[in-house]
Specification:
Elements (H helix, E strand, L loop, with lengths): L2 E6 L3 H12 L3 E6 L2 H10 L4 E5 L7 H11 L4 E6 L4 H9 L4 E4 L4 H27 L4 E2 L2 E2 L3 H13 L6 E4 L6 H11 L7 E5 L8 H6 L16 H4 L4 E5 L6 H13 L1 E2 L8 E2 L3 E6 L3 H6 L5 H7 L2 E4 L9 H17 L5 E2 L1 H9 L5 H15 L4 E2 L17 H13 L6 H19 L10 H15 L4 H8 L3 H18 L1
Helix pairs in contact: 13-15, 14-19, 16-17, 17-18, 18-19, 18-20
InterPro entries: AAA+_ATPase, AAA_lid_NorR, CheY-like_superfamily, Homeodomain-like_sf, HTH_Fis, P-loop_NTPase, Sig_transdc_resp-reg_receiver, Sigma_54_int
Keywords: ATP-binding, DNA-binding, Nucleotide-binding, Phosphoprotein, Transcription, Transcription regulation
Protein name: Sigma-54-dependent transcriptional regulator
């Protein structure tokens, strides 16, 4: 691998000598004599190595080093001087230099130092690659390391610097505005404004003014000129939440604005031009809104360039517990409480619940628990009404009895439900009477399969809920399903 180096040395003869030393190490060298020239080169390209003389005709090499460490910390810097001292060496190392060489030095001494610097650079790059490959538990306001969220994080990283319009879809409470802010913060517009508008919360008569602004006297109450979101977002990002709620007439004006970047204020005639990145969001199915005539098809294609679909909380596995623990910690600190964790039963309840309101509902539930209670651990009895049916953990015998009773209420029994009822009836009778009556013997895996599938059926196909009631993890059920398929193949 060929490396590049920028050599900053005011002596022509020494510069030529050091250049030959470095080229012998298969390094591409650019040689400049002044600090200003070095800074100019660094603004255009970044070398792997910076060989920097401390005493330069126009400035101190230490000042250059400090600037480089701020703007390009990945560059390995080696300081050189004819006036070596311990104090100067310490200052250089504290400022971020890799090493320090005192003139005169030979090719071997420079070679050893350069090779060590490049080895350290390679190690740092490997560490960075490894860290980047790890699942992200926290990302720009999101909490969660599930595969579904890793895919969202990767998409955000890919689109952040693009000007292409992004269309975020997801149920209410999944974090669509958090996603929009993440795209803005990761991208090259992070230092510019992020302006968010909720199209569903603004009256139809005012939303055009909210987006484009208005001139004095444009309508009753318009006593002054007012900038709209388009003007305030110039250079940055405009986020239009619940875009499908926008009036059709205004959708046509928005389409022209997106196409041209120009608009007119309400009551005005002057064309204004802005540079904006558009991000839209909806909790509806946008194409269905197009087919129903509620959303313009041409606007849909303009905005739906890069779609991002946020998964509901029920599809994010253990993220529920990660989020709940972080919220518990945050709210406990805010409210002056001493909560530190959830007990096992409470944790199981969190994962068994469907969370129809997603993250927003989880936030409300944890906040309510913290405000109304004070303990070190959250217990099932502290959960509010929506989770109360899960508040009493059931034993396996109780679950079997519950399943047996509920199965008898079904109008039509499937073969699996019939087999489950027979098995559960026998098991329950044995648990209550403790008799030694011999039951029909069948393979253990089949017995287990019937019990688990019966539980899933009674939970309306909700595997996490069935797993919680059976006192096992959802992953155990998925793993056992694969084993059952293998057992069935061997038996056939």
């Amino acid at each position: 691998m060929n490396y590049s180096a920028l050599l900053v040395e005011d002596s022509m003869s020494l510069g030529a000598l050091y250049t030959e030393y470095l080229r012998a190490e298969d390094i591409n060298v650019t040689h400049v004599h002044y600090g200003a020239d070095a800074l100019k080169e660094l603004s255009n390209w970044q070398p792997d190595l910076l060989i920097l003389d401390i005493k330069l005709p126009d400035m101190s090499g230490l000042d250059i080093l400090k600037q480089v460490q701020q703007s390009h910390p990945h560059i390995s810097t080696i300081m050189i001087t004819a006036h070596g001292s311990i104090d100067i060496a310490i200052d250089a190392m504290r400022s971020g230099a890799f090493d320090f060489l005192v003139k005169p030095f030979d090719a071997k001494r420079l070679s050893i130092t350069v090779r060590n610097a490049l080895k350290q650079k390679q190690l740092l790059e490997l560490v960075t690659q490894y860290e980047n490959s790890l699942p992200k538990g926290h990302y720009q306001g999101f909490i969660g390391d599930s595969l579904a969220m890793q895919s969202v994080y990767k998409t955000i990283d890919c689109v952040a610097n693009s000007k292409a319009s992004v269309f975020i879809m997801g149920e209410s409470g999944t974090g669509k505005e958090v996603c929009a802010q993440a795209i803005h913060q990761v991208g090259n517009r992070a230092d510019k404004p992020f302006i968010a508008l909720n199209c569903a919360s603004i009256p139809k008569e005012l939303i055009e003014s909210e987006i484009f602004g208005h001139c004095k006297g444009a309508f009753t109450g318009a006593h002054n000129n007012r900038d709209g979101a388009a003007t305030r977002a110039d250079g940055g990002t405009l986020f239009l939440d619940e875009i499908c709620e926008m009036d059709l007439e205004l959708q046509s004006k928005l389409l022209r604005f997106i196409q041209t970047g120009t608009f007119q204020r309400v009551g005005g005639s002057k064309e204004e031009h802005v540079d904006i990145r558009f991000i839209s969001a909806t909790n509806r199915e946008p194409w269905e809104e197009v087919k129903l005539g509620h959303f313009r098809e041409d606007l849909f294609y303009r905005l739906h360039v890069i779609p991002i679909e946020l998964p509901p909380l029920r599809a994010r596995g253990n993220d529920v517990l990660l989020l709940a623990k972080q919220l518990l910690k945050t709210y406990s600190k805010e409210e002056g409480k001493k909560f530190i964790d959830f007990n096992p039963q409470a944790a199981a309840m969190l994962q068994a619940y469907d969370w129809p309101g997603n993250v927003r509902q989880l936030q409300n539930v944890i906040r309510q628990i913290v405000v109304l209670n004070d303990a070190s651990h959250v217990e099932p009895s502290m959960f509010p009404a929506p989770l109360k049916p899960l508040a009493q953990p059931q034993t396996k015998v109780q679950l079997q009895t519950k399943m047996q009773v509920e199965t008898t209420k079904l109008d039509i029994d499937t073969p699996v439900q019939v087999a489950s009822r027979e098995l559960l009836s026998e098991s329950t009778q044995e648990a209550h009477t403790h008799t030694a009556e011999q039951q029909r013997i069948q393979p253990l895996w089949l017995t287990e399969k019937q019990t688990i599938e019966g539980a899933i059926a009674l939970c309306d196909g909700n595997v996490p809920k069935a797993a919680a009631l059976l006192d096992i993890s959802p992953s155990t059920i998925y793993r056992k399903r694969m084993t059952w398929e293998e057992q069935a193949e061997r038996s056939s």
